[in-house]
Amino acid sequence: MNWKIGTGFAALAMVGMFAATAQAEDKVLNIYNWSDYIAEDTVAKFEAETGIKVRYDVYDGNETMEAKLMAGNSGYDIVVPTAFPFLDREIKAGVFQKLDKSKIPNLKNLDPELMKRVSAADPGNEHAVIWMWGTTGIGYNADAVAKRIPDAPTNSYDLVFKPENAAKLKDCGITFLDSPTDIMPIVLNYLGLDPLSSDPADLKKAEVLMMSIRPYVKYFNSSQYINDLANGDVCVSVGWSGDVFQAQARASEAANGVNIQYSIPKEGTMIWFDNVAIPKDAPHPENATKWINFILKPEIAGANSDYVAYANPVPASKEFMSEEVKDNPEIYPSEEVMAKLFAVPTKEASYTRLETRAWTTIRTGQ
Amino acid sequence: MAGLARVGLTGRRLVIGVPLIWLCVFFILPFLIVLKISFATQMIAIPPFSPLLDWSAGGWLPGVHIDWTNYQYMFSDSLYIVAYFNSVRIAFFATCICILLAYPMAYGVARSPERWRNILLLLIVLPFWTSLLLRVYAWIGLLKTNGVINNFLLSIGIISEPFQMMNNSFSVYVGIVYSYLPFMLLPLYAALSRLDFTLLEAASDLGASRTRAFLTITLPLSLPGVVAGAMLVFIPAVGEFVIPSLLGGTGVTMIGRVIWDEFFSNQAWPVASAVAVTLMMFLVVPIMLYQHFQTRAEGRA
Question: Can you name the CATH fold of A25-133+273-332?
């Protein structure tokens, strides 16, 4: 190639780059969401309606996503952090931009009660809307548990937190989420303490309880239990509601005779919210705003919930769901149960450090 | 060219300079960044730590902000030292197993007929064509309680109860040895293929037994390959995170997990960096000392 033509091309390319940023956004949207967390055809429907090409990446833990956001320039337009502690501290760090509410008319579809619950992380709901919400509870293999404990208290955390029960379940396998912020508040609540407590003495009591059942725990992991429950490799998992329902679905698809159930324990448990938000340095904020408006349509939200078995924040979407999802009290709990569910706002960094350290002791059993 | 030579840019300097620049950009610079973060204070911001230089006071010189507490954590809690020794122990034994497995294999390849060698070498590097993650996942399928190996042994009646091969140190060793074996094999092969096998013939002509010939000729001459392979296996194995987190149990914490916890759970990038810098010091300093004395010993000889 001639030297002059070469520089000509380079100059042209640079002009093109500047022109692209000056003009309207490219028809592209970069989404970073949890794995297995959306109906199979939602992205295709959005692309057909708006002509925007979606790049869809997935992660399996808040931590991975948060590290990318905190490093800056993640390149993503939409991310889905859990309200506490992640969205909370990410908003404090200034990661997200405010939503342009005038361009999201479907905000009116949101359940105001639920949005009020996340406003502790996002005052005034300025930065995020709920994507899905659910509970942390007990997933269990009904037959395997009944064989070992005839009148098993499957509707209570006694099942795993009473050493005599845990000991009987050891051979078929107890698992916990590998996340202190998900498990420790539940232990505090079970002990009759305040789950929001950041008193090291309370943390110590929770650690003592966990250590008393530690010999009977098979592993701590936040994703492996889905498959292991479904295959019958483990029989009780303290995990996220939708994951347990996925295990249930996989077991019935495989027709392997494994009967998986989920229960919200009567002592009360954690409620969590995953939220859609737009990073400040998002390259396509307008497309992201369109996406948020799109997912708040009742028919889209309903289809997503139907697929992932988690509840969404759009009440009108229920008519687009199957009965197994919308009438399931473990997905959409009664008001009486809802009153016992708690969300745990972010605790201080010094307490988080103690909590992580206690968790290392529990996880290693040393 | 004469002009370039006048400013000192000769061919020889260029040849040395390129790797030097490479080392600076991809090794020293990242290390300096990590070192810098290890002296910062954790805070809720982007990025989540304080800057090293503070210009807010004005004037010509910035204030320097150095936080030593990140390093103090490492001595206030036995967790870090225990995790460090766990990592070194596992990496050490995995390296030993790799040497024992790779030596006969490399020897076999080096002594095989010329036309077979390339095929055998290809087979050694073939696993790299599949992602490490997939290969480690495949081991889960093989080793787990309901896995391929247990089901096979149960079905032919050799065992009545499944072996517990997953989520313990056995599975971690299997994963590390399997993944790093080629890194041991290739330098060993390089050393052994350069070996002049007529030396062995000479030794046997002079009446040395096969064992004696091996111990006095083959082994010492292949030692550089063993050392190079051991470095290539041991150093990454100490910091290994993926294999223990997928295959390992919860009983033994390696240093990779500790750094992960600091970085992701505590969002404490400075403490995570301090742990990483300390690990570097523990690893690099002994290796550099070893190199130093090695070259001195060679010089004297």
Answer: D-Maltodextrin-Binding Protein; domain 2 (3.40.190)
